[in-house]
Request: fold
Amino acid sequence: MFMRFVQIRVDQKYISDIERIYEEKVLSQLQDIPGCVFAGLIQSAPDPQDFISLTMWTDPKKAQEYENTGPYKQIMEEVSNYLAEGSEYKIQLSKDLELEYAPVHEEPEVKQLSVTAQANKQQWSEEQGIKEMHIRIVSLSIAKDKLKEFRRLYIKEIMPALKETKGCRHVFLTESQQTENQVLSITAWESAWHAEKYEKSGQFNKLLDKISHTMSDLYKYKMAFEQKEGRHSISKDDMTVSHYEMISGKSFD
Reply:
């Protein structure tokens, strides 16, 4: 299994329309693309302008073939009309041959992820409340010589614990194909309340302790220092926890 993230920042005035736009422009196209088994649009909980189009594929070659096609490039061109303007500007000549500055849209960021392990209690489907799901993404930096050990612990210790946690419906362990030793633990929950309850229960910290020795040296140094200081915070360079709401999605298999 293979996963792709296309991260975009949407113009403020299109936020209320993005679900319709995604269904008309993206889902309608992807349902006919060989190898694509699921597509969903998730919205950042703390920043409503940030979205990720999450797609799942049977084979990375199928995803690459689609990315190289005219339809994909055409749809990205259309979607660019709804993106927020970035902090960069381009210089161009006006019709009167005068220099003018035009804002440049935020470019979509594409991430390619191989799925190392997965555990699904249910299939992705609208009938099971796909639009109500809460997506939690934990990004971790693993030490170069500890990746195999991390995989083993995740599959043996963390995945079974998550499967038994009330409200957790899907668990995916993915590895970045672009950033060495970066892994993402992606979980789908029945609601934000269930994910929040899991974090507040202390179970997340207990599971984190099981794999902390496999993480980067910088992470371990920060953890040791903060324990002496009586604090518990984690550098964004070593681990980030992100929360998203699923606002549109469809299974194609």
Q: What stands out?
A: The first strand starts at residue 2 and ends at 9. The two ends are 13 Å apart (CA to CA). Residues 229-236 have pLDDT under 50 and may be disordered. The chain has seven helices and ten strands.
